[in-house]
Known about the structure:
Elements: H1 3-16, E1 21-24, E2 27-30, E3 33-36, E4 46-51, E5 58-68, E6 71-80, E7 86-95, H2 103-106, E8 111-116, E9 121-127, E10 135-142
Parallel strand pairs: 2-5, 4-10
Antiparallel strand pairs: 1-4, 2-3, 5-6, 6-9, 7-8, 7-10
Amino acid sequence: xxxxxxxxxxxxxxxxxxxxxxxxxxxxxxxxxxxxxxxxxxxxxxxxxxxxxxxxxxxxxxxxxxxxxxxxxxxxxxxxxxxxxxxxxxxxxxxxxxxxxxxxxxxxxxxxxxxxxxxxxxxxxxxxxxxxxxxxxxxxxxxxxxx
Length: 147
């Protein structure tokens, strides 16, 4: 029976680890009018940012989406509240309304490395590669200098 606590220890450690914070655009600006995310006019549109930066004192703010002339644009901001610079990697993907990655988006390098400085406010903006791209997913995570 001693094996049971030994087996549970790794599982309990995993449960204690926090996952990413998830931020979504609650309102989508659609052809000049603000719509709630559950509005039928924008129900296929998704704008989501996952952040693993909570321990780095970096906040994700102002996640927005806009559909104008049939094309989705997205934007969000990163605000560093700590006293040390933070290196981050931002990756993103575009999908159609069925969740399929678009060929034009899949062939491009979709990552950006940033160095955020104390009390810096960084705004990142993205425009869909085609009118079919109705879903935007971004991930922000710390990167560490390798010695």
